[in-house]
Automatic annotation (TrEMBL):
Keyword Oxidoreductase part of the UniProt annotation: yes
Native organism taxonomy: Bacteria, Pseudomonadati, Pseudomonadota, Gammaproteobacteria, Vibrionales
Classification via CDD domains: ALDH_F5_SSADH_GabD
Annotated catalytic residues: 257
Pfam families: Aldedh
Protein name: Succinate-semialdehyde dehydrogenase
Top-level enzyme category: oxidoreductase
Taxonomic superkingdom: Bacteria
Listed EC numbers: 1.2.1.16
Family that this chain belongs to: Belongs to the aldehyde dehydrogenase family.
NCBIfam families: SSADH
Length: 483
């Protein structure tokens, strides 16, 4: 079955996706498979006025939604979760076709994305206020939690379902309406998962997807429209700064999950075999195109050669290709610009003195061989920049204080990882790392039950965990007097 045939097969039971695929207007946005360069379909490019109309309808829908009992909202979210899981294979195929990640990885993302819907379906019933001891006997003080109103989000191409559900599920659970702009490279997954929400009973005006050729226009509208009370963004630090500035005039609440430059540290007392497996999972998932993937590898002098040897051997087992092909573990980069940036970083590192231990080849199309660089130093460009591709630069260190200084030498503070079996060192290093998340003897840390987010210029706010729904709630204080 051809790629288009696979998409249309699923779309037959998914009216929203089918209408998108069949809508080839003159200004439609073309969606291309990065692995084959084949056109998959089109999504409409909406005008500013069309998006304003969606915002206004979302404002009206939110008032009715917020009045529903939390248990009713929870039931619809739970039904949405069940539909997503029932369509896991089809959603994964769509994701692989438009984003490129291997099918098994895409299935994992569908389940991961669904887990946020399941989690926040339950959290909808736990938005508790509190009773506060009053200052006098004739007063009573309580607080209640209420939804902020219309929430908007701008989501990236690297996790086209999970980045939607991680924001939409807590917003809907809290009683908000939700409008998202999925990335123009990967919108089909978003439209498909939204259709399943409609089938679960969630009103269309309450949950909307919008796309436009002008991402700048959408960003300006989301960050300035007075009916939008909350803006959530996942993407680069540079764009996040702009959106924060644009949101200031309306004093809008923002959540920003921005760039990362994650250190992965291997101490001399680490279990090297486990460290290699953790490094492989952290670095090469989604071809290294994740904001929390390991970006800089710091390995103690005494185990450097052993780690490099084992890591090189493990990297050479990875299979690059089309994500639907058997055994493929590394898919393409998202577009030509991304590939050119990665190749330039590799070349620049080599010019600055790094050695290619394995990989480094341009495999044609949008594919690059997973690469390990040795003899890397802290001042190289590849260490100072977010790589966002399948390249692992390895740096030597000799003592803990030197290591901490190098690891924290970045404007970013999203994720970090280290391997050690010394319990005293574990607590010291975990507290000293200036990052919002720390993986200790673990290379994969994202989960719906824990707060996801960074410090410094990696962001504001948290997603997931009990903290995730708080981003869409406001606290109201009620003071009763003359009692």
């Amino acid at each position: 079955m051809s790629e288009n045939a696979q998409l249309h097969h699923f779309a037959l039971n998914n009216p929203t996706l089918l209408s998108v695929l069949c809508n080839k207007s003159d200004d439609a946005i073309e969606v291309i498979n990065p692995a084959s360069d084949e056109t998959l379909g089109y999504v409409p490019s909406l005008s500013k006025n069309a998006i304003i109309d969606i915002i206004e309808r979302a404002h009206l829908a939110q008032k009715q939604w917020a009045n529903l009992p939390a248990k009713s909202r929870s039931a619809m979210l739970r039904h949405w979760y069940e539909l997503v899981m029932a369509n896991q294979d089809d959603l994964a195929r769509i994701m692989t076709l438009e984003q490129g990640k291997p099918f098994a990885e895409a299935k994992g993302e569908v389940a991961y994305g669904a887990s946020f819907i399941q989690w926040f379906a339950e959290e909808a019933k736990r938005t508790y206020g509190e009773s506060i001891p009053a200052t006098s006997e004739d007063k009573r003080i309580i607080t209640i939690k209420q939804p902020v109103g219309v929430a908007a989000a701008i989501t990236p191409w690297n996790f086209p379902i999970a980045m939607i559900t991680r924001k939409a599920a807590p917003a809907l659970a809290a009683g908000c309406s939700f409008i998202a702009k999925p990335a123009n490279q990967t919108p089909l997954s978003a439209y498909a998962v939204a259709e399943l929400a409609y089938q679960a009973g969630i009103p269309r005006d309450l949950l909307a997807m919008v796309n436009s050729h002008s991402s700048v226009m959408v960003g300006q509208l989301f960050s300035s429209h007075p009916l939008i009370q909350k803006l959530s963004f996942t993407g680069s630090t540079e764009v996040g700064r702009v959106l924060i500035g644009q949101s200031a005039d309306t004093v809008k609440r923002t959540s920003m999950e921005l760039g990362g430059n994650a250190p992965f540290i291997v101490f001399e007392d680490a279990d090297i075999e486990r460290a290699v497996q953790g490094a492989l999972a952290s670095k090469f998932r989604n071809a290294g195109q994740t904001c929390v993937c390991a970006n800089r590898f710091y390995v103690h002098d005494s185990v450097y050669d052993d780690f490099v040897q084992q890591f090189s051997r493990a990297i050479r087992t990875l299979k690059v290709g089309h994500g639907l092909d058997e055994g493929v573990t590394i898919g393409p980069l998202i577009d030509r610009r991304a590939k050119d940036q990665i190749l330039a970083l590799i070349q620049g590192a080599v010019v600055q003195g790094a050695q290619v231990a394995t990989g480094g080849e341009d495999l044609g199309g949008l594919f690059i061989a997973p690469t390990l660089l040795t003899e890397v130093t802290q001042n190289m460009d590849i260490v100072q920049k977010e790589i966002f591709g399948p390249v692992a630069p390895v740096i030597r260190f000799s003592n803990d204080s030197e290591l901490i200084a190098m690891a924290n030498d970045t404007i970013h503070g999203l994720a970090s990882y280290f391997y050690s079996q010394n319990i005293n060192r574990v607590f010291h290093i975990a507290e000293a790392l200036e990052f919002g998340m720390v993986g200790i003897n673990e290379g994969i840390i994202s989960t719906e039950v824990a707060p996801f987010g960074g410090v410094k210029q990696s962001g504001i706010g948290r997603e997931g965990g009990r903290q995730g729904i708080e981003e869409y709630l406001q606290t109201k204080y009620l003071c009763f007097g003359s009692l």
